[in-house]
Amino acid sequence: MQISELYQLYLQYPSIQTDTRKLQKGDIYWALKGPNFNGNLFAEKALEMGAAYAIVDEPVAANERIILVEDGLTALQALAKFHREQFEIPFIAITGSNGKTTTKELVATVLASHFKTATTEGNLNNHIGVPLTLLKIKQGTEIAVIEMGANHQQEIAGYCEYTEPTHGIITNCG
């Protein structure tokens, strides 16, 4: 399935959840994998719990509401990029060794007094949190403040490929 087709599903069901414990009826369940978990194993359960669709990267049961993609994380990031490209607004990226979340909260609070502002919730600033933050941006938003954390080289560059920030703040290096 092409990203543009996934985007049409997202527009119909604009809430993505990667954890069945937090799933709400009508969410799109996005199966992700890590060293200690495999979200693909929960796709059928997610549908039983009310998910509109389940996005997986391993074959599971045949079901028209289960959509197979090549790589779940890559597809999530591509969908986030596609969504971000729908907005011609300032995107402020905030990163640094420490102080990211506090700086993000301060900047977002000041901007929210004058603009409809979207911002990273808490410190969801990793390879999963950044795309999920982008996908929560709604039409009418006037500015976005996105926190980006890193634990290896070139990670921020990767986030910037799909976040496409117009401005950047580095809080501290070292």
Can you tell me about this structure?
This protein is an alpha/beta fold. It contains 6 helices and 10 strands, in the order H-E-E-E-E-H-E-E-H-E-H-E-H-E-H-E. The strands form 3 sheets. It has a 4-stranded parallel β-sheet. Strands 8-9-7-10 form a 4-stranded parallel β-sheet, sandwiched between helices. Strand 8 (117-119), helix 5 and strand 9 (143-147) form a beta-alpha-beta unit. The mean pLDDT is 96.
Shape: globular
What's the alpha carbon Rg, rounded to whole Å? 16 Å
**How much helicity do the residues have?**
25-40%
Task: Look at the structure and give the CATH class of the largest domain.
Answer: Alpha Beta
Structural class: alpha/beta
Summary keywords:
Udp-n-acetylmuramoylalanyl-d-glutamate--2,6- Diaminopimelate Ligase, Chain: A, domain 1, 2 domains, alpha/beta, UDP-N-acetylmuramoyl-L-alanine:D-glutamate ligase, 10 strands, single chain, 174 residues
Question: How would you concisely characterize the structure shown here?
Answer:
The protein is an alpha/beta fold. It has helices spanning about 5-10, 45-50, 70-85, 100-110, 130-135, 155-165, and strands at about 15, 30, 35, 35-40, 55, 65-70, 90-95, 115-120, 145, 165-170. The protein has a four-stranded parallel sheet with strand order 1-2-5-6. Strands 8-9-7-10 form a four-stranded parallel sheet, sandwiched between helices. Strands 3-4 form a two-stranded antiparallel sheet.
Topology:
Blueprint: H1 3-12, E1 16-17, E2 28-30, E3 33-34, E4 37-38, H2 43-48, E5 53-56, E6 66-68, H3 72-84, E7 91-95, H4 100-112, E8 117-119, H5 129-135, E9 143-147, H6 155-163, E10 167-170
Parallel strand pairs: 1-2, 2-5, 5-6, 7-9, 7-10, 8-9
Antiparallel strand pairs: 3-4
